[in-house]
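Lecture notes, continued. The same structure-token format from the folding unit now serves as the input rather than the output. Read the line below as a description of shape only.
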């Protein structure tokens, strides 16, 4: 039972953590200090399963690099444009908030979810790096086009990108050091590294919501229904488009793209919404369809082994 809650049924403790983070009374601003540690834990345990040679080989894999290129463009430009356009037609007052959420780069947790669904972990890692590097350009440009008010500035986004890359490099380097010095331990625990990564993800959901709950504390539940419906629609459209690609891409690559597209860097969107769009609930509630979308992908897409599968 425990193994399933840290595996295919991870959505159960994730939603429990989200509910606690949203509605538990008290001031938990201090807990935000745990966010980078939980992020680091996600990547550390996942990267224990990724040999350094696989990453080096990725830089020489033209097919992987081409996929990474067009997937990054789709994630940062095409999908946000679609989400904004549909939301603008339905509820234009919420369109900027939906755009801000969907413009976010890939979430650092997406590599763990890719691994959970037997996707291409290296491609997911490359997509996190590329989208994080491009975000300081794409987010301000995108928000300038869809919102007349202030948008995140390049300097601040560049600092955030550097922060994200540090969170990528340090856990990856630490994991590779452990792989090098304790190979038997790593091999012996291979069945648990993914579960520990998911445990860190669930903890991240809790501490990120708890730490930022001042931004939406006191809201009535009814106030959340419209933005919840809109972000769910956005995630649903993304999921539908991804399912249409099942015949065009091998399952491991498509699963990496799916997890990166559905499970974006929501903590980043909460930070920017608090600074530039106070009162916007989209970023807070996006966690609901993000978790659901990843679960549904695992059930509907049914990834399978192929010659393109990661080793």
């Amino acid at each position: 039972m425990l193994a399933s809650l840290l595996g295919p049924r991870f959505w159960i403790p994730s939603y429990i953590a989200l509910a606690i983070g949203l509605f538990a009374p008290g001031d938990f601003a201090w807990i935000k200090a745990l966010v980078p540690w939980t992020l680091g834990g996600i990547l550390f345990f996942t990267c224990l399963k990724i040999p350094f040679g696989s990453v080096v080989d990725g830089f020489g894999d033209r097919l992987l690099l081409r996929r990474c290129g067009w997937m990054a463009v789709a994630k940062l430009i095409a999908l946000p444009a679609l989400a904004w356009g549909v939301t603008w037609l339905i509820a234009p007052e919420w369109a900027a908030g939906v755009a801000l959420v969907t413009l976010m780069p890939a979430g650092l947790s997406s590599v763990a979810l890719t691994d959970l669904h037997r996707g291409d972990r290296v491609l997911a890692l490359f997509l996190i790096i590329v989208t994080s590097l491009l975000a300081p350009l794409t987010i301000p440009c995108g928000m300038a086009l869809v919102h007349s008010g202030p948008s995140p500035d390049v300097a601040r986004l560049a600092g955030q990108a550097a922060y994200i890359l540090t969170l990528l490099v340090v856990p990856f380097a630490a994991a590779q050091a452990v792989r090098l010095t304790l190979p038997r331990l790593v091999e012996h625990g291979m069945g648990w590294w993914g579960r520990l990564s998911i445990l860190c993800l669930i903890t991240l959901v809790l501490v990120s919501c708890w730490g930022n709950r001042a931004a939406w504390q006191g809201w009535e539940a009814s106030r959340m229904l419209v933005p919840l419906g809109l972000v769910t629609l956005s995630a649903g459209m993304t999921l539908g488009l991804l399912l249409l690609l099942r015949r065009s891409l091998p399952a491991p690559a498509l699963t990496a793209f799916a997890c990166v597209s559905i499970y974006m860097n929501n903590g980043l969107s909460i930070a920017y919404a608090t600074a530039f769009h106070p009162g916007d609930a989209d970023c807070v509630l996006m966690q609901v369809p993000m978790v659901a979308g990843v679960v549904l992908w695992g059930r509907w897409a049914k990834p399978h082994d192929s010659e393109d599968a990661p080793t």
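Point for the exam: Residues 45 and 193 are 5 Å apart (CA to CA).
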